[in-house]
Specification:
Elements lengths: L8 E9 H8 L5 E4 L16 E7 L13 H9 L6 E15 L3 H6 L8 H9 L7 E17 L10 E9 L4 E2 L3 H14 L3
Parallel strand pairs: 1-3
Antiparallel strand pairs: 1-6, 2-5, 3-4, 4-5, 5-7
């Protein structure tokens, strides 16, 4: 079933590792973890939008920070790395749930729904422990017409949110998971970390 919501175009994007964006596209990653980037205001993450494009970045992604099951995918993203002045927008996401999380055990139980390694989870939890860590459940969509864009200098840096130069249509996008599969996913996630 294609996307049929009221919003037809967007400009806002959230930066995420290229390997995670590809895992999202393949339906094997459904969560985000955020505290904030160094260039974010107050270095804290703020959920500025509930719908946004996934902006693939190669900054900070390392093979030891993802699970073995996606090492081949990581290598593929590096091999297919676009020219420095280009990027490809293929997916967008809608926030469905947001949790504060401080328990490594819960994050490990959620391993089937993300591609991060235990080392990465520990790093995220231990980095500036006085700041809240947010676990975000996404409903994700594939664009009918992926867009190749200029990777402008203003997009660089350790920041979370990006305003793209031009709006991109999300008309006729296809959900990564069916409605039924997403309901099952949502139930599984919330059962591990109830509100």
């Amino acid at each position: 079933m294609e996307y049929s919501g009221s919003r037809k175009n967007m400009k806002v994007a959230l930066k995420e590792w290229a390997v995670v964006v590809q895992a999202i596209k393949l339906g094997c990653h459904h969560l985000l973890l955020r505290k904030g980037g160094l260039a974010d205001k107050k270095q804290e993450f703020k959920l500025e939008q509930e719908k946004f494009f996934l902006f693939p970045t190669y900054e900070h992604q390392k093979i030891q920070l993802i699970q073995n099951k996606v090492h081949a995918l990581y290598n593929e993203t590096i091999k297919n790395f676009l020219l420095e002045d280009e990027l490809l927008i293929e997916c967008w996401a809608e926030v469905k749930e947001v949790f504060k999380i401080s328990d490594l055990g819960i994050l490990k139980q959620l391993e089937p729904y993300h591609v991060w390694s235990e080392e990465y989870l520990k790093i995220r939890l231990n980095y500036k422990p006085e700041k809240n860590l947010f676990l975000i459940l996404l409903r994700t969509y594939q664009l009918k017409n992926p867009q190749r864009l200029k990777n402008l200098r203003r997009y660089s840096g350790c920041r979370s949110w990006i305003q793209l130069e031009d709006e991109i249509s999300i008309d006729f996008s296809t959900p990564i998971l069916s409605e039924t599969d997403f309901k099952i996913l949502n139930q599984n996630i919330t059962s591990h970390y109830p509100k």
